Every structure is written in C-alpha cells, then in structure tokens.
Amino acid sequence: MPGKARLLPESYPETDIWGYGGAVPGPEIRIAQGARVHRRLVNDLEQPTSIHWHGIHIDNEMDGVTGLTQSAVAPGGKFDHAFAAPDAGTYWYHSHERSTEQVARGLYGALIVEEPSALDIDREVVLLLDDWRMQESGQIFPDFMRRHDRAHSGRYGNLITTNSQYAFTMPARARERLRLRLINAANARIFPLALRGLRGWVMALDGMPLDAPRRVEDMFFLAPGQRVDLVADVTEQSGGTAYIERLEDESAQAQVKVLVNGIASTVTRPDPQALPPNPQPVPRNLSEAAEARLVMEGGAMGGMQNAILDGDRKSFRQLVGANQFWAFNGVVGMTSEPLLQVDRGQTVRLAIENNTAFPHGMHLHGQHFCEIDKNGTLGPMRDTILVFRGETREIAFVAGNPGKWLFHCHTLSHQDSGMKTWIKVRA
Ligand code: C2O
Ligand code: CU
Fold this sequence. Notes:
Elements: E1 2-5, E2 15-18, E3 29-32, E4 36-42, E5 51-54, E6 78-84, E7 89-95, H1 99-102, E8 108-114, E9 123-132, H2 147-151, E10 159-162, E11 169-174, E12 177-184, E13 191-196, E14 198-205, E15 208-215, E16 220-222, E17 227-234, E18 241-248, E19 251-263, E20 290-298, E21 306-309, E22 312-315, H3 316-321, E23 326-328, E24 340-343, E25 347-354, E26 360-364, E27 369-372, E28 378-382, E29 384-387, E30 392-398, E31 403-409, H4 412-415, E32 420-426
Parallel strand pairs: 3-8, 9-12, 11-19, 20-25, 24-32
Antiparallel strand pairs: 1-2, 4-6, 5-7, 7-8, 9-10, 12-17, 13-16, 13-18, 14-15, 14-17, 18-19, 20-23, 21-22, 25-30, 26-29, 26-31, 27-28, 27-30, 31-32
The protein binds CU-O-CU linkage (C2O) and copper (II) ion.
C-alpha cells in the first residue's frame, strides 16, 4: 500500500513510497527452518501486483510470477500465500508484477529462515541495500520505462540507502561478533563491497551455507537479488568507526557505518564454524545431465542485428521502437515453450554466455544451482549468478522442484525488455 519513508535528511520532505504494510523495507518475516509462512496479500494499489519469495524452494503456485504461475492480483484483490521454507538462510520477498516500478517504489522485505541451532554470535543485523532515483523534490522519479536504462545497465539511482536510510549507522562494541545478512534489493546497482575495521567470513550465499566459512580478504560483489551472510568480528577499537564500504571508481563510500563504543570481550574468538547444510541435493552425475545453453545478446553496444519478438523476426531498430532490447537464444522475452523441459530429479547443466556489453545477474526461481568452474569443480549453491560481459559461465542443478520456473536477469529493466525465459520441471 502507499506510504511514506524518511529516505533523505530532515531538510527534505518524506518520500512517497509503496510498501508492504506501507513501510519500506516491508515487515521482516522470520520463521524457523521447515515452518510455514501464511500471509495474505491485499492489494491497496491502483495497479495489479504479486509477491515473489526470492530463493525459497517453494510450491510453484506460490511463486508469484504473473503470467507463469498465477495471474496478477487486481487492485482491491487478495492472494493467500501459504508455503513451507525448507532451507535456512537469508531470503527476501518482492513484487513480481511491473517490478521495475513496484520494487523501485519499495515493495520488498526480508524473509529470514533460522537454523535450528543458533550461531555463536552476539548480535544479528539484516541490511537491505537499495538505490533510488530521486527528484529534487525528494520524490521518486517516475521514469520506470526509460529507454536508456533498459538498453544500458538498468535503472541506477542517485540515492543509495541501507534499510531505507541514506547514511545508515549502527552501534557495536569492540570484539563483538556480528552476523550481517546483506540483501541487494536495488533494481540495477551491483554493489562492490569491502569491510574495514571488521574481520569477516562469508557464511552463506543466497541463503545457502558454504561448506567452510571463507575469509573476506578484499572486495566482493552483491548483484541485484543476491544475498550474503557474513560473520564479522569488530576489530576496530572502542571510539573508532568500522565500515561496510562501497567501492566506487577508486573511492570508498560508507555503505554502513559502525560506531564502536565499549568492549564486548577481551579475547578473540576462534574462527566461526560452518552453518549446517540445507537439505538440497548437490548436482553430482554431471555426465548424465540434460544440457542447455543460454546466449545473451542485445542492449546498447551489443551488436545484435535482429531477434524474434512475439513470433516475428524484428530488426534491432524495430526492437528499439518496441522498447525491447535483449534476447536469449535469439528470442526477446517470454515464450510459450520453455528453455528446457526436464523430469523431476534430473540434473541440468546450463551454460550462460554473455555476448552483451553489460553484466547480468541471472536468477533461477525455485531451486539453487552450483557453478561449474573451468576445472569441473562445483562452486557454492546460489540462486543468482553475476555474469560479466564476454563471460561464459556454467551452472548445474538438480531439478528437484516441479513446476514452471522463471530464469531471468535481476536487473529489472532488463527483465522487462527481453531477458527472461523459463524452465519446466515435470512432476
Ligand atoms: Cu527476485 Cu524473479 O525475482
Ligand atoms: Cu541484465
């Protein structure tokens, strides 16, 4: 529903937003692993909407993808969501209808699924990163369909926030051990992040625990839709400031400021233990996998000559006229046929080739995948993979969840201008 948020300093008015419960981020939903979520979506907006539960191995009819798993919820309408969350970790929910506008206006929130055994930490903080395009007036720029954004790197903003505050600051004590759950809710911005005054370990990516915590030595990326769970020990002294920094063209900006006051402990703790694994199968029999390739083309400076739109071959100039810019395997946008159709339990190998001039964070609904590196080694499980220009990356997963699953770029302007397809898993 419509609401207001204090995104900017006091000298500006509050900003009109759309939020779940009228707030951005929406209410944090926190449940135990395996428990069920029951939420009724009531649409108080003047346009249709839906909710997607990003990263949850959910029943397909609860996935919230309008046009694929359900129809959009009309203004004044309702939708009852009821589903189990089998995996512990950091997830989030957001609109999946006109998302370029609806997510940009604030329709998202955190969904936290707790492990049965608590980590040995002092405190946990959920950090939702966003990037807003604001007008002088302090209101959101309503230019959600802008051609330039769609053809380039998406709808970047000019106001970067954490938990909807432009200069997010939190207190901590020296040697305190924090668990930080970072979620990138931005439409397009890829956050290059680093820690200062914090000794950190990556514990989980996109909700899924790493086999062993990985020390954060330098910069790491958080693409739209991605999450990272960190354990961070405050190494900064009392009286000092620690930071999660955002690296921008050689300079470091404070994404999160940690004001250190007091001392939590006089001893340094041992390194953290891995989180317990989630019950999702790792793809093993790669030799028997169903294989597919996804070639991404288009966008500005991409050199795409033509592609199929709504069944007809169109020149790039015609596509520009239709405000569509991107193709997967030569086809723009959703098709009636899936990219791939497999039986439940089948292992899938999918190569993603980025022949465009931009990075794309590709998100698969309903299951996690592992990256297969050049040596054939499986990387950690993720639900969103950032593929840079010119790269080909290969992923594998066990198609364990029957239904129709969207596979798309999480740069929302790209999703809306061609970059989506789907995978069918037969029951
Ligand atoms: Cu986070 Cu298809 O979405
Ligand atoms: Cu993209």
